[in-house]
Amino acid sequence: MSVALSPKVKSSLTRFKIMAVIVGIGLLLLVAEVVLHYGFDNDSLIWWSQIHGFLYLLYVITVADLGFRVKWSLPKMIGVMLAGVVPFFSFVMERKVAREVEGSSADTLAG
User: Fold this and answer.
1) Distance separating the N- and C-terminal Cα atoms of the chain
2) How many helices (H) and strands (E) does the chain have?
3) Tens of pLDDT, residues 55-101
4) What is the Cα–Cα distance from 50 to 92, expressed in whole angstroms?
5) Nearest C-alpha neighbor of 9 from the set 86, 53, 69
6) How far apart are CA 94 and CA 59, in angstroms?
7) Domain edges within the chain
8) How far apart are CA 64 and CA 71, in angstroms?
């Protein structure tokens, strides 16, 4: 059953989904940068670490925005934020959070 989210939660969720994918891809690039730098003495991606840090900061802000709107506990927010530091986990968390937020809207209206 598809239930409409409030416009503010919907926009926060959309921003979170976008940032989770961007940070996930960015983290994979960061891993490649570290492997190239330390494994092959190749600095072709050395510029990426600062950009990734900025993108991760935006991810943390979008998680906090969504978390406050859907009334998550602080430990849950921190857990979702930390998902952005483990390769591939931000992709998994993005799907889990989207299902949870979209499902909680249906539960709230049904109950």
Assistant:
1) 14
2) 5, 0
3) 999 999 999 999 999 999 999 999 999 998 998 998 999 999 999 99
4) 24
5) 69
6) 11
7) 7-101
8) 10
